[in-house]
Every structure is written in structure tokens, then in C-alpha cells.
């Protein structure tokens, strides 16, 4: 199969992590930002919504939309719970990660430096701790499990491990050290990061290093 995205972590990284963990061979096709406008304008049948990531399967089918791709791969490779409540928890996490990251992404692409600072400061003071508090509570209710949901790795773990590896534990990110200070005030989340680092260490060490 072929995964099409930009040469950054972004929305494709949980997909890369999952395929890597499941030992599925795939082409990690990375588009340069400069090539994108022409590709997008080119009426390319692979770009159904004129957005990436897309995953082109070996049978020619093209999958779009990150969460749907994750769910598809989760079902294929055993990273989706069969229990309805656990499946709900996984989806709820994925939506929460999107909500958490939306303002952060807006700040990153904001050209006006003052506005950018303001969005980021508000996110750091309010949004980030609010979501972490909720995640910490969920982890507390998980008892001794290492994972976000149930007793095994799910697509929620790929998504959250990717997220923290990019914004909290990333030496190339300008904001990572500040975010880590807040993140590590949550003991269960800190322990979670440690546990996931053990599981994904080989991949995290060998992947291309990027600030985002
Ligand atoms: N809902 C889509 C959003 C995809 C999306 O926003 N992709 C961005 C990159 S992260 C993109 O393709 N941007 C280029 C563009 O829209 O021209 C998903 O979850 O996959």
C-alpha cells in the first residue's frame, strides 16, 4: 500500500506508527509543500477531498480521512476493541485529540506574530491542561492498564503516542520543553508516555526527525 502525505508528522504519523507496529510494508510517499498546489489543482483521482493523508490500497481503493483510515487499519490489524463501550472510548479519544490540536495547529500556521502568541498562550493556559486533566482522569479509571482503553494497544494509543511524541517529546519542536513541563505534572500521563516510549522506541528512534 501507499501512504500519501507531506514530509511532516502531522495527521499521517499515527498511520505510519500503526503500519510499522503491524509490520505492514508500505510506501511512505511524502509530498514537498512546493509541489502541493500543482498536485491539488491537477484533478488527481487519488485526492478525493483535495487533502491528505490518503492511503492507496493494493487493490486500488483509495482511503481518505484520518480517523476513518485509522479505524479501517485498526479493524484489519487488531487495534480496535470489539466491546461497544471500549470502541466508544477509542472514538471519543480520537475526537478529543482533534479538538485539542485544532487551536495549536491554527497558531502554528498564523502569520501575524502577535495573534500567534495569543492563540498559543491561551491554548497553553487553558486548552492543554483542560484536556490533560480529562485524560488523566480516564487513565486513573483504567486501573493498572498501560493503555488508554482496555488491556491492549488500540488506535487511540497510536494517535496519542504520535501526538505526544511530536508536541511534548520532540527536541526539534520550539514549544516542546514548555509543554513537557505541564504534561509531566500529570503522573499517569507521564507514566503512559514512558510505557509507550518502550513500545515504540525503535520506530521513534529511526523515523525522520522533524519539528512537527
Ligand atoms: N478531515 C481530514 C483533514 C485533512 C487535512 O486537513 N489535511 C491537510 C494536511 S494536515 C491538507 O491536506 N492540507 C492541504 C490543503 O487542504 O490544501 C482528515 O482528518 O484527514
Automatic annotation (TrEMBL):
Pfam families: GST_C_3 (PF14497), GST_N (PF02798). PROSITE patterns: GST_CTER (PS50405), GST_NTER (PS50404). CDD domains: GST_C_Sigma_like, GST_N_Sigma_like. GO terms for biological process: glutathione metabolic process. Keywords: Transferase. It comes from the Eukaryota. Residues 1-81 form the GST N-terminal domain. Residues 83-212 form the GST C-terminal domain. One of its GO terms (molecular function) is glutathione transferase activity. Transmembrane segments: none annotated. This is Glutathione s-transferase. The lineage of its organism: Eukaryota, Sar, Alveolata, Ciliophora, Intramacronucleata.
Amino acid at each position: 500500500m501507499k501512504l500519501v502525505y507531506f514530509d511532516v508528522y502531522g495527521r499521517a504519523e499515527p498511520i505510519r506508527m500503526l503500519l510499522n507496529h503491524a509490520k505492514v510494508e508500505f510506501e511512505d510517499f511524502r509530498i514537498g509543500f512546493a509541489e502541493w498546489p500543482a498536485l491539488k489543482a491537477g484533478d488527481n483521482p487519488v485526492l478525493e477531498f483535495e487533502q491528505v493523508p490518503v492511503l492507496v490500497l493494493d487493490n486500488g481503493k483509495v482511503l481518505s480521512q484520518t480517523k476513518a483510515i485509522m479505524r479501517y487499519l485498526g479493524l484489519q490489524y487488531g487495534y480496535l476493541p470489539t466491546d461497544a463501550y471500549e470502541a466508544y472510548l477509542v472514538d471519543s479519544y480520537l475526537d478529543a485529540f482533534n479538538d485539542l490540536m485544532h487551536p495549536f495547529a491554527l497558531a502554528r500556521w498564523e502569520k501575524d506574530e502577535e495573534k500567534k502568541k495569543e492563540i498559543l498562550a491561551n491554548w497553553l493556559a487553558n486548552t492543554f491542561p483542560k484536556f490533560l486533566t480529562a485524560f488523566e482522569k480516564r487513565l486513573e479509571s483504567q486501573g493498572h492498564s498501560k493503555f488508554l482503553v482496555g488491556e491492549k494497544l488500540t488506535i487511540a494509543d497510536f494517535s496519542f503516542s504520535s501526538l505526544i511524541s511530536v508536541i511534548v517529546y520532540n527536541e526539534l519542536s520550539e514549544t516542546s520543553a514548555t509543554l513537557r513541563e505541564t504534561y509531566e505534572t500529570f503522573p499517569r500521563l507521564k507514566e503512559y508516555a514512558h510505557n509507550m516510549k518502550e513500545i515504540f522506541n525503535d520506530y521513534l528512534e529511526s523515523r525522520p526527525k522533524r519539528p512537527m
